[in-house]
Amino acid sequence: MSGYLIKYHGSLIHWVSRLQSSISESSAEAELRSIQEGARDVIYLLRLEQELLGETTLPVIAYEDNKATFHQCIANASKGRMKHVTLTMLKVHEYVQKGIIDVKLVGTAQQQADYLTKPLPEGKLLPIRDLILTNL
Questions:
Q1: Could you give the dihedral angle defined by the CA atoms of residues 56, 62, 117 and 135, in that order, rounded to the nearest 10 degrees?
Q2: Which of 10, 20, 43, 48 is most exposed by smallest CB count within 10 Å?
């Protein structure tokens, strides 16, 4: 499963939850695919914002709970398990370098996209739901 959600000034405006089109060799690769798909939608929404409002709000913050994926996005650390990823999946690193996206490492309990991709027990589901629906 791959999933992400996009908020604009704290309000949820777009979300995706679907099976990935290919099999990932690691959880880091699956997370990298997901953050890349989300980044592609963010770029579209930034262009729309620019067209409608004449300005964009940068950087867009992306939250990631996988340390290997986080380091790949920040430092393009293609060592070990990440050697096999395609160049298209490394686009997020370029967005980070350009100041378009700022990737922040969060704990699993704060990863709002898990609501879309994992079966969660009620004790974990309700706090994440509340994070998603609050205007923060």
A1: -60
A2: 10
